[in-house]
């Protein structure tokens, strides 16, 4: 029989005999008796008294050989022989060696392992470096057989990188186990060929040109004493300035020269070098030199208070040029002490924005503010301080004694005027907030009076609350009132059941007015 490793087979062994005679089946493998009573791994006797078939489960390579079935009685014995060949993937190649190594190639030799009864059809060379994740197949030239030794040349390697190799064999059955790894060897050094990318920069101080790039990984440095070459010149110039950056890990260089004018464009190239020589240069990038801080303070700064906790600072934009410094945005400073010793806030805005709303302030408090421009070099001078007093706090008492009457689709509301404390802003009017349920959109109606009329289709219950309006902002809201839908009311608008729960005052007087816009 010819089988593949891992399969399960049955070797038949049957005999015809006189039923009165007892027979015994004995199996031998390569001359040694198989003791089936001990439960030997892989072997199992199957069948009845006259059947002595042998089952071999998950057959292995070492099960190749001669199997003998012997049938014995008290009178005689007979036997039959079967030869089994188990074929499997090749064994691991042996004695993998690096015979020669250059900067990009390596010549290997090895001896094949066992073919496991199936001729070896292919060898695959795999390589690994300290930077790779696992083993990877590499390109090779065709294998050359020299006696019982195979040779192959691995190509496409990186210079100055440590490699180790192993070989895997394959046949028609499959791919075998890999060989042991070769000795770890480093390829020869060579001139670096990969140029840096992402050339950028800018910023820095006056008379500086800051240049940045993406550093080259170690596996592409190709040799010792690796570094970077910086080539730069002002736009329009023909002469290049050359600088060397010897640090392997560098990704930034600052060129300083007092003759550099602020925000001047430079052509920049970044290259690489090592002990073997200078390598490639990147393409040209335009990088601007450092700039001066803005020289002018914003004019026309003003501030106004919108509420007890909010003020707005505004100013005129600066028309900048190279002499007065570029403006990237503005910085608003604000504080409460006239001495400006304790700045409590600093907010930046980008571009040409010339107003900034500041919130979270204290009520009835004097705030000072000034504005200054900024760019990559820093901030410029501040504008003269301006100040404003925030509004008094909004009324703390909510509208009280709210009463309502619903007739058809007309809802009349009435409440008491809210009296404010001395440290609170005067009431300018009221806001009525109403919605059909807690999830629906809230509508707002404003009035100067203490009564209002709403024309709404009451197909559902309505939720209503009223709050005060003042210079200091909105005051406290009343408790939420639920107005039942029309179907639950009597014809005159009075609740059909439990009327007392819909009135928030003992004495109720209804007035309906036309709503006037709120003026401030």
From TrEMBL:
Q: Where in the cell is it found?
A: Cell membrane
CDD domains named among the record's database cross-references: FN3 (cd00063)
Entry GO MF terms: cell-cell adhesion mediator activity
Residue span, Fibronectin type-III domain: 92-190, 195-292, 297-393, 394-488
Entry GO CC: axon; plasma membrane
Q: List the PROSITE patterns.
A: FN3 (PS50853), IG_LIKE (PS50835)
Write out the transmembrane intervals: 501-519
Q: Which Gene3D superfamilies match?
A: Immunoglobulins
In terms of Pfam families, this protein maps to: fn3, ig
What are the alphabetically sorted keywords of the record? Cell adhesion, Cell membrane, Disulfide bond, Glycoprotein, Immunoglobulin domain, Membrane, Repeat, Signal, Transmembrane, Transmembrane helix
Tell me the InterPro entries matching this sequence. FN3_dom (IPR003961), FN3_sf (IPR036116), Ig-like_dom (IPR007110), Ig-like_dom_sf (IPR036179), Ig-like_fold (IPR013783), Ig_sub (IPR003599), Ig_sub2 (IPR003598), Immunoglobulin_dom (IPR013151)
Give the region (Disordered) as residue ranges: 379-400
**Ranges annotated as biased composition (Polar residues):** 379-394
Outline the extent of the Ig-like domain: 1-79
Major site of localization recorded for this protein: membrane
A GO BP annotation: brain development
Protein name (record)? Contactin-6
């Amino acid at each position: 029989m010819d089988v593949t490793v891992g399969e399960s087979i049955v070797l038949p062994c049957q005999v015809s005999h006189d039923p009165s005679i007892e027979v015994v089946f004995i199996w031998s493998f390569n001359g040694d008796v198989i003791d089936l009573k001990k439960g030997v791994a892989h072997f199992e006797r199957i069948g009845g008294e006259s059947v002595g078939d042998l089952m071999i489960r998950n057959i292995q390579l070492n099960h190749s050989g001669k199997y003998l079935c012997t049938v014995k009685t008290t009178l005689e014995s007979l036997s039959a022989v079967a030869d089994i060949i188990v074929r499997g993937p090749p064994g691991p190649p042996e004695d993998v060696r690096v015979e020669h190594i250059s900067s990009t190639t390596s010549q290997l030799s090895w001896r094949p392992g066992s073919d496991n009864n199936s001729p070896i059809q292919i060898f695959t060379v795999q390589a690994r470096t300290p930077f790779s994740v696992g083993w990877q197949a590499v390109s090779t030239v065709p294998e050359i057989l020299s006696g019982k030794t195979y040779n192959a040349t691995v190509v496409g390697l990186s210079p100055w990188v440590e490699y180790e190799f192993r070989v895997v064999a394959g046949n028609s059955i499959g791919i075998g186990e890999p060989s042991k790894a070769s000795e770890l060897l480093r390829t020869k050094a060579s001139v670096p060929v990969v140029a840096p990318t992402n050339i950028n920069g800018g910023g820095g101080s006056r008379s500086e040109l800051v240049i940045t790039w993406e550093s080259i990984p170690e596996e592409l440095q190709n040799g010792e004493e690796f570094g970077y070459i910086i080539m730069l010149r002002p736009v329009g110039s023909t002469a290049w300035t050359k600088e060397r950056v010897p640090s392997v890990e560098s990704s930034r260089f600052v060129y300083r020269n007092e003759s550099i004018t602020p925000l001047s464009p430079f052509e920049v190239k970044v290259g690489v070098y090592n002990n073997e020589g200078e390598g490639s240069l990147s393409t040209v990038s335009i990088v601007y030199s450092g700039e001066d801080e803005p020289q002018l303070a914003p004019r026309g700064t003003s501030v106004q208070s919108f509420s007890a906790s909010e003020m707005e600072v505004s100013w005129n934009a600066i028309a900048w040029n190279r002499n007065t410094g570029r403006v990237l945005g503005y910085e608003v400073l604000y504080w409460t002490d006239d001495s400006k010793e304790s700045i409590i806030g600093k907010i930046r805005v980008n571009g040409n924005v010339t107003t900034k709303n500041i919130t979270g302030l204290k009520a009835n408090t004097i705030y000072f503010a000034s504005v200054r421009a900024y760019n990559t070099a820093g901030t410029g001078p501040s504008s003269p301080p301006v100040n404003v007093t925030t509004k008094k706090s909004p009324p703390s008492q909510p509208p009280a004694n709210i009463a309502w009457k619903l007739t058809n689709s007309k809802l009349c509301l009435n409440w008491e005027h809210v009296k404010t404390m001395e440290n609170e802003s005067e009431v300018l009017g009221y806001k009525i907030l109403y919605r059909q349920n807690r999830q629906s959109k809230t509508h707002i109606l404003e009035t100067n009076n203490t009564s209002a009329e709403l024309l709404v289709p009451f197909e559902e219950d309505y939720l209503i609350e009223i709050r005060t309006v003042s210079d200091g902002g909105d005051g406290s809201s009343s408790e939420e009132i639920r107005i039942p839908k029309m179907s639950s009311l009597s014809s005159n608008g009075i609740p059909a059941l439990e009327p007392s729960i819909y009135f928030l005052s003992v004495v109720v007087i209804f007035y309906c007015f036309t709503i006037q816009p709120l003026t401030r």
